[in-house]
Amino acid sequence: MSNPPVYTTSQGCPVSDPFSTQRISVDQKGYQYAPPTGPLLLQDFKLIDSLAHFDRERIPERVVHAKGAGAYGVFEVTDDITDVCSAKFLDTVGKKTRIFTRFSTVGGEKGSADSARDPRGFATKFYTEDGNLDLVYNNTPIFFIRDPTKFPHFIHTQKRNPATNLKDANMFWDYLTANPESLHQVMYLFSNRGTPASFRKMNGYSGHTYKWYNAKGEWQYVQVHFISNQGVHNLLDDEAGKLAGEDPDFHTGDLYKAIERGDYPSWECYIQTMTLEQSKKIPFSVFDLTKVWPHKDFPLRHFGRFTLNENPKNYFAETEQVAFSPSHTVPGMEPSNDPVLQSRLFSYPDTHRHRLGTNYSQIPINCPLKSGVFAPHIRDGAMVVDGNLGGTPNYAGAYNCPVQYAVGAKASGSKPDEKYEGEVVPFHWTVVDYDFYQPKMFWKVLGRTEGEQESLVKNVAGHILSADEFIQDRVFEYFSKAEPIIGELIRKEVHKLSPRKDSPARL
Ligand code: NDP
């Protein structure tokens, strides 16, 4: 390409005047200011090419995690964990792997404010020699649901009312209070961690339980923690609200500018591990996404560090088109039977096929460039850009196309895997007393730092002010399940901020 480049159509045809259009030239005698031209011509490909492409610039935004920012970086193994995991990219201390991380808010649209109270997505793609591994995490160690069928219901209530197109405190709290297994995550969300000061200053958690295998085929349940080397820093509710108005893209800019000035953010990577035997003795299910594994019983073990040190060159090509899925995994790492995780294995690639097309893995940001791909039956479809394997037979096992099959780590396995046998049943996870134990522990953790419990109370009270009084009453009751004092404090704060008909001052 010449420098400076010659302006062309999308087909490479040089164009002498990008701003001209082909029109019929007519004699405009008598019109002093009107140009001497008539209607446009359909043959003006330059104009049609430009307008038609412009009309198609937008792809569907992600239904969740629409607003995000990302960067490239490097992951380095710091400690040997080959006794737990045989993934090749972890096999040597000091080994480095290129990554791309995307942070996001969850409920807001693409133009929404970065500082909104919301969990944050924290997804990382590792370009490994065994294919791409996606660790698709959040900045909270737990989640609102554990029955995957609830997900669309739950998300709808956190988005917009179908009639008014407004966020709706009644919908928001109606759902949550009717599904009290959400309480642990709701307490986390309404603590100051619900409004992080920066993407750089928050932790990432797998939340789900995974299964990692060593080279002998022995496996353990694993949870992963990414702990920020920048520390955890949060905004107070009014600071977050102010920022949403003054600089709604603050977190996006904060990440970009930090990397541009060489202030590279980094995270230490840890695992918690649990054996099958241990999982039978804990007072909750290892597949319950609303629970954490207590640190004292399942201590963190360090294994790596990653640093983000390179901004994408083009937001749409990289950050918008990056396609993460927990089903993009590598030998040595498998999903557990956590039902929410199992449903995500389907839902994420399904979204990418819808948003980006069936060949989304051919988009450079999603290509497993380090491993290469040889799946001769995965051919054709919209937007093939990689040569489509030329004349290679389009099935495996062709006489003229010998294929090697890898020997999996599990093939030499010595430990029995999980066994399941039973009837097919409609399962809906029942709420039990233990579901409120960890929220109670969380309230205690907040009590270790001055002002944190008060923030939780204020943040909830401020949010429910616009809800109907009967919904507010349900919210008081809901938080009281963790500790009666929480519901009471929220009630008092609501009465103070906006006296109701039953407020003490009015009785
Ligand atoms: P610990 O006392 O060992 O751990 C409590 C953890 O809470 C800390 O390590 C820290 O995790 C996190 N934390 C500290 N201050 C705050 C805060 N102001 N806001 C939010 N989180 C904070 O106890 P347990 O492991 O037994 O957990 C007790 C409770 O702590 C749990 O019920 C859960 O609600 C919460 N928690 C537990 C986590 C876990 O994985 N065990 C992780 C986060 C919270 P970190 O270093 O990851 O920030």
From TrEMBL:
Sample GO molecular function, one term: heme binding
Catalytic activity: 2 H2O2 = O2 + 2 H2O
Residues at which heme binds: 348
Keywords: Heme, Hydrogen peroxide, Iron, Metal-binding, Oxidoreductase, Peroxidase
Name of the protein this chain belongs to: Catalase
Broad class of enzyme this protein falls into: oxidoreductase
Catalytic residue list: 65, 138
Residue span(s) of domain Catalase core: 8-403
InterPro entries hit by this protein: Catalase, Catalase_AS, Catalase_clade1/3, Catalase_core, Catalase_haem_BS, Catalase_immune_responsive, Catalase_sf
Function of the protein: Catalyzes the degradation of hydrogen peroxide (H(2)O(2)) generated by peroxisomal oxidases to water and oxygen, thereby protecting cells from the toxic effects of hydrogen peroxide.
Gene Ontology cellular component terms for the protein in this record: mitochondrion; peroxisome
UniProt superkingdom: Eukaryota
Cofactor needs: heme
Originating species: Ogataea philodendri
